[in-house]
Specification:
alpha/beta; 7-stranded mixed β-sheet; 11 helices; binds NADP nicotinamide-adenine-dinucleotide phosphate
Length: 343
């Protein structure tokens, strides 16, 4: 089977990785790569490292009409009108922005500073974390591809939900600079980041709302989360150290043994193609340019806490690789097709 795909906003960091992955995917043909800033230039003009024979064209919904699946890689608030136009025109869409991740439309002004005018599509969109929503993704018209930090957090905590009640949840994440997009700012400029390390948005980072929504849904009750992101002087990758306390249904503290915890995680992820539970705490280099999430679990008996260290590549499992994984599910392809190798 060959399907046609288009990437809208193909010249950003996520769009470039997606272009590369799709160009090497045996089940797809690229229909269009859109860009406002680089229209008329070839992919090689803009990204000499990509061996993709195509010319960027301005976005025009009518010219994408023959596309089976469109990926939208715009910044939040820019994305939703384009996503809506494409869905209305009959295409299946995978949106890499945050514009359809939150289920309550009233949260968009508070967390993202814009009023959502497509509540119907907010209600319809499926949150694109395959490990949680594989069946829903398979028949979705619109997939809201998860955020990078939420992916690293959710995969780390999911095996605990349903078994235990989680409290005192702390998400301490470190990200490479590509998470901030291709355009440098004062804060992400090489000279600001190189040989230094800092926290940012230490209370109320936008991804907190998405994390709380999805962890609470999985847990079946509201789970407050304290999230602190940090900016690492590296290009790609997120390392999240996750902490929580566990109780049983009646509120009594429980602490599994190290073996029990490890077995729980291994059993939970035994059939997952892209989640690896390992013994030694993982480093970013183990997952950079791959679609894998690798994690190690620990019981900190003295503190009465469980700790998980998870790593992903923010541009692959945190964005474009996960988007291709979702496309594979939507099209009935093997989920690993085109995302098993390096990205
Ligand atoms: N970077 C990550 O690690 C990551 C991870 C998960 C999700 N995401 C999400 O994926 C989306 C794309 O992220 P990215 O990192 O690839 O961003 P980026 O590097 O800043 O690229 C965004 C692209 O969107 C296009 N665009 C259209 N309207 C724009 C506007 N008003 N301002 C700026 N760009 C505009 C631009 O292309 P033209 O000007 O050529 O049209 C640009 O290349 C974002 O919503 C982001 O939150 C990113």
């Amino acid at each position: 089977v060959v399907i046609t795909v288009s990437v809208v906003g193909a010249t950003g960091f996520a769009g470039a990785v997606l272009t590369d992955l799709l160009s090497r995917h045996p089940g797809v043909r690229i229909d269009a790569l859109t860009s406002a800033s680089y229209a008329g230039l070839t992919v090689a003009n803009v990204f000499p490292n990509l061996r993709v024979d195509a010319v960027y064209q301005p976005y025009d919904c009518d010219r994408l009409a023959s596309t089976d699946i469109a990926f939208v890689c715009y910044p939040h608030a820019e994305s939703f009108p384009v996503v809506a136009e494409l869905v209305d025109a009959g295409m299946k869409v995978i949106d890499l922005s945050a514009d359809f991740r939150l289920k309550d439309p009233d949260l968009y002004p508070e967390w993202y500073g814009f009023e959502h005018t497509r509540e119907d599509l907010v209600a319809e969109a499926v949150y694109g974390l395959p490990e949680l929503y594989r069946e829903e993704i398979a028949c979705a018209r619109l997939v809201a591809n998860p955020g990078c930090y939420p992916t690293s957090m959710l995969l780390g905590f999911l095996p605990l939900t349903g078994r235990f009640r989680l409290s005192g949840v702390i998400v301490d994440s470190k990200s490479g600079v590509s998470g901030a997009g291709r355009k440098a700012s004062d804060k992400t400029h090489f000279c600001s980041v190189h040989d230094d390390f800092r926290a940012y948005a230490e209370v109320g980072h936008r991804h907190t709302a998405e994390m709380v929504q999805e962890l609470s849904l999985a847990a079946g009750e509201p789970v407050p989360i304290s999230f602190t992101p940090h900016l690492l002087p590296v290009d790609r990758g997120i390392l999240s150290t996750l902490y929580c306390r566990l109780t049983d249904a009646s509120g009594l503290t429980v602490l599994p043994s190290a073996n029990e915890l490890r077995e729980l995680y291994e059993a939970y992820y035994q059939d997952e193609p892209f989640v690896e539970v390992v013994s030694a705490v993982p480093a970013l280099s183990e997952v950079q340019e791959t679609n894998f999430c690798r994690m190690a679990v620990r019981v900190d008996a003295a503190a009465g806490m469980v700790k998980v260290v998870s790593v992903i590549d923010n541009l692959v499992k945190g964005a474009s690789g996960q988007a291709v994984q979702n496309m594979n599910i939507m099209c009935g392809f093997d989920e690993r097709l085109g995302v098993e190798g390096r990205a």
